[in-house]
Amino acid sequence: MRGVRLAGLAVLGSLTLTGLVCAPVALAVPGAKPTPTPTRHKTASPRPTVTKTMTKIAKPPPAPCNTPQAFPASQMQSVPWAQQRLDFTSAWKFSTGKGVTVAVVDSGVNAAHPQLAGRVVKSIDLTGTHNTDCYGHGTQVAGIIAAQDERNSSKAIPFVGVAPDVHLISIKVQEGETSTDNGALLARGIERAVQEGADIINVSATNTDFPLLKDAVRMAQQKDVLIVAAAGNTDSQKKANEQEAYPASYPGVLSVGAMDASGTVSNFSNSTSRVDVSAPGAQITSIQASGYIGGLDGTSYAAPYVTGVAALIKSEKPNLTSQQIINRIVSTADTNMVAGSGAGMVNPLQAVTALGDGNASPTATQQAGAQPIDIGGPPPVDHRSREIGGLVAAATIGVALLVVFGGVVAPLGARRRWKPGRAAPIQNDSGNDQD
């Protein structure tokens, strides 16, 4: 019995010694970790947020805006021929375009020009370049539409715009002579003009027929916004291969061709495009930069003359639809036509004041395609001479009546002692009297 106890104590001692020896070794084993006590509601630690850094490529700055060359007003020796020919100032007693907003979708407008002071109410740049006109074309167009009357000021500037009281919205869609986006900005420019509340849109640019442009024009027409567009220019040596220009050739767009001072269609005016009416477009004078420029050629400059006339009509007759305005302009144009002139030269005074049915379409004789005949431009209208001539004519007629009365009527009356004479009988072909 005592031997068994001794054996048990020996085993217990051996185990105790083994634990004391092995424990330090286990603690020294690399990577050994105590077993964690599990919990019922352990919350996962949030993952760290990774911030991605995007490296933006710096957009190159736009090229410097080179102001186009301009000349002082003192170099204008006379009233520009287009101004004399159209005589649009005679319509100002009825309308000056007040209350009408015109969008110029072009190369921008220099709102700082003295004759555009207060006219440009908004400038929008869709090109991402300069929110002004570095090329000059849009400013020239805007001047024809809305240049202020400075004829009686100390500057005595003979040049004026057709509708000086309109408000202008400048929408820049190109930086130079041509656009590099295949016309997409032109379409966006038309849409933006509608969104900004324009009543009339002047498009002195051309492109081909493509869906975006057609959709933009359709949007404007659905909002009853009138688009006046240049029929386009062409090289006289390439007339046989010229193509229709758009948006001018879309239905419902007022398409404008160019005429020169002799009253003939300019040789650069695109005759393949549909032309509704014509206006001066050769050797045109307008504003540029802070001064003036002359010798401008193109249907680009004919279109704003018609845009100005449309603004005069819209101001005088605000309830007319765009199509009714087109009908008035076409039906009142000078009807002596040449091929490619449409209905002929626009007539501002008649377009504003003519009476008639605004829904009536122009007659067949006023449509494009009439046989060419000479329509030499009439001389400028001198209203003062016309009034004096009328008074002289009336006085002459009065004197003639007095002479007739004194030389014929008075002696006959005296011989009859102013008694009525006997009426002569009416005779038939055989000479017999009839009852």
Provide structural commentary.
The chain has 435 residues and is an alpha/beta fold. It has a domain at 73-366: 3-Layer(aba) Sandwich (Rossmann fold), CATH 3.40.50.200. The chain has helices spanning 2-28, 81-86, 137-146, 184-195, 211-222, 299-316, 322-331, 348-353, 383-415, and strands at 101-106, 120-125, 167-172, 200-203, 226-230, 254-259, 277-280, 284-288, 291-296. The strands form 2 sheets. It has a 7-stranded parallel β-sheet, sandwiched between helices. A two-stranded antiparallel ribbon has the order 8-9.
Overview in brief:
The chain has 435 residues and is α/β, with parallel strands linked by helices. The protein is built from 9 helices and 9 strands.
- What portion of residues is helical? 25-40%
Biggest sheet strand line-up: 2-3-1-4-5-6-7
The average pLDDT score comes to 78
Given this structure, which CATH class of one domain is correct? Alpha Beta
What would you call the shape? globular
List low-confidence stretches. Answer: 6-43, 364-389, 418-435
What is the tally of helical segments?
9
Radius of gyration: 43 Å
Describe the largest sheet: 7 strands, parallel
Sheet-strand content, in percent, reads 5-15%
* Number of strand elements: 9
Indicate the structural class.
Answer: alpha/beta
By oligomeric state, this entry counts as single chain
> CATH homologous superfamily of one domain?
Peptidase S8/S53 domain
The span between the termini is 189 Å
**CATH architectural type of one domain:** 3-Layer(aba) Sandwich
Helix-strand pattern: HHEEHEHEHEEEEEHHHH
Do you know the CATH topology of one domain? Rossmann fold
